Amino acid sequence: MSSQEKLNVKVGRRAFLKMAALSGVAGATMLNAAPAVRSASDEELKSPYPGSKKVKTVCTTCSVGCGIIAEVYNGVWVRQEVAQDHPISHGSHCCKGIDSIDNVRTEKRVKHPLKKVNGKWQRISWDQAINEISEKMLKIRKESGPDAAMFLGSAKMSTEQAYYFRKFAAMWGTNNIDHQARI
User: 82: alpha, beta or left, given left = phi > 0 and alpha = psi -120 to 50?
Assistant: First the structure.
């Protein structure tokens, strides 16, 4: 029996609507059984971090320079909003800029060098990571020349990072550098 025949279930419009109604009733029943949650006050919604300060700054995700108002609490960037009066962004952001706070607070952010050993990621020291990578790169350069490497920038690089990335490629001895948005 082919997979096409196995999935050939005939459900009419009426039967589908009945099933949808039943699942909606079941979902509403479960929601009603959930414990009540206190609503936040207007003051809590306006300022969930009392004592924080708002800092006008510039988004560094790309070189456009859109305005951000960062909210900083105890030295930690906790929230952001667009700068409505900024002359470049005029109160808007691109998808990268609006999500740039994830660079700081996401749980998925890699904070230490990792190396895959026997199929599992293991934490290694910064010295070990730098030494292993530099040895491999220098070996490639010695065997195949500086043009054997391609330096590919990212949209997550700030303007300053892109500048130093280009300088590193020039020091390496190649013009093989580009940006991922052009590929």
Answer: beta
pLDDT, tens digit, 9 for 90 and up, residues 34-84: 566 677 778 777 777 788 898 998 887 776 788 888 888 888 888 888 888
Rounded distance, CA 74 to CA 104, Å? 14
Per-residue pLDDT band at 137 (split at 50, 70, 90): very high
How many angstroms separate the Cα of 5 from the Cα of each of 2, 9, 16, 166? Answer: 5, 9, 20, 57
- Strands 151-153 and 177-179 come out as parallel
Q: What is the enclosing helix (H) or strand (E) of 150?
A: none
- DSSP label of 136: H
pLDDT in tens, 90-122: 888 787 777 777 766 777 777 889 999 999 999
Return the structure tokens found at 161.
Answer: 């990072």
Q: Alpha-carbon distance 156 to 94, whole Å?
A: 12
C-alpha span between 67 and 16 (Å, rounded): 49
Whether 7 has a pLDDT exceeding 60, the answer reads no
Mapping DSSP to helix (H, G, I), strand (E, B) and coil, where does residue 122 land?
strand
Dihedral pair phi/psi, residue 7, rounded to 5°: -90, 5
For the chain, the straight-line distance linking the first and the last C-alpha, in angstroms and rounded, comes to 44
pTM for this model (two decimals): 0.48
